[in-house]
Amino acid sequence: MQHGKAQSAFLCKRIIERQIKIALIQEPWVYHGKVRGLGRAGGTVYYCPSAEEPRACILVKGAKGVFPMPGLCTRDLAMIKLAIGKGNTKREVAICSAYFPRNTESPPRELSDLIRYCEGIRLPLLVDCDSNSHHTMWGDKEVKPRGRMLLEFLTLSGMQIANRGSVPTYFTPERQSVIDLTLCSTELLSQVVSWRVSLEVSLFDHRHIFFGLDESIQLIENGYRNPRATQWDLYLEDLKGRLIGIPSRYESEADVEVVLNRLNSAIVESFEANCPLKQRTSSSKTPWWNSHVESHRRKVRKLFNKAKRTKNPNHWEDYKSAQREYKKVIRDSIRDTWRASCEDIIQLPSAARLSKVLTKDPGAKLGAVSLPDGGFTSSAGETLQHLLSDNVEPTICPSPKLGIQIPSRDDWDNINNTICQNGIIWFTDGSKIGDKAGAGVYGKTTKTKLSFAHGSYASVFQAEIYAILTCGMEILKTTPKRRTIQICTDSQEALMAIESSKVKSRLVLDCKKDSK
């Protein structure tokens, strides 16, 4: 979109009117390092979060099962993993938006690596790109070295060209060419349908391209259920049938857990069967579009068709001038509409909702991260587990100047020789029951009691170290200097990890640093 504000606004209008679910965008409007102007269309925008000026992004609206892959994204490449399917047959595909800079090889190395990565894990891939490459194979009128290079790569990689026809996708007074390509894996080629180039003026040199997916596959869309629309009589009958066979007597906690799971499943399944799932529909109106903007659109399109037909330089100049005025009118209309909307907010709840919308960052999604072995996580759960992992690169850290003792059973028989009776005594413990971990700290002298829940991802070792670390921080806040302090724990593994000079745990490293 050549980084234009008006171009972004017009694209949003088309997305809203046509109820487009996914938009693959190159050269979006960027302000302060973030893609802007696409929020009017709704949905979430995905792009490389570390790029200062991203040139590729993906807008997803109303789809469920989207998994960002920021580890595979660059300034010129945006990629997500998307769940598609129909009925009980569901699978995943990779969706990519790419920009090929003119001063690099075609395709860029990042896209080549992505294609090989998807091929290695057998993940179907769909790519929409501004290739800046010319070849008659995809409908252009000439062949250039970048086009030969790209065609050779596509032949060797097995990627297919989904373009249809030879309608120019890039249109200027000097040149009309086909450089915007839709590429896909072989298994997706037959499922990319209705590929076409829009004849509508797009406010920049490239044309919008539309295509759909075959009816055999569908996006898994976000839906909702309205409890008021539930058929409660049928729900009760369905629930009674599902509760048949559930035992009424239990001999152990495990039996209770089994019964509770069956009861919960019966209630949920009965409700879902008798309360239909509905899809959310957004308004097809664009608030800033009015008759004044529409008149400029008609004028620009009329001048464009005239210049295209006559090829007269003066007519092309008239078209360019009208297009610049058209962009200005769009920007002014957006600003005026926004100002009027803000002036109408006179109640606090409305202002609070507006503040929430403005401060929410839709790009903050849990996506793929790189693993120590060079691969990437493949699901949100795997990403979360890796982020919560305590492992770090082995680090040499001197042992703290602490007196670490591991008394024997005989030593504990004479407790007066083991515990300093005149000092300040603390006890720490970490444990895990089922899939729930937690830690506790108790100050015998200060009568301090602390407890912490760590959820299902923490280990017993992490809970023990966290308890010691928290105890040390509490001592620093509450205990005067030059006092004898003893911290008692039942974990020899935790004490040996703190005493060791080689550290592999982030928590242990923090604990050793704080103990200094």
UniProtKB/TrEMBL annotation:
One MF annotation (Gene Ontology) recorded for this entry: catalytic activity
A Pfam family recorded for this sequence: Exo_endo_phos_2
Residue ranges constituting the Endonuclease/exonuclease/phosphatase domain according to the UniProt record: 94-209
Biological source species: Aromia moschata
SUPFAM superfamilies: DNase I-like, Ribonuclease H-like
Record-given protein name: Endonuclease/exonuclease/phosphatase domain-containing protein
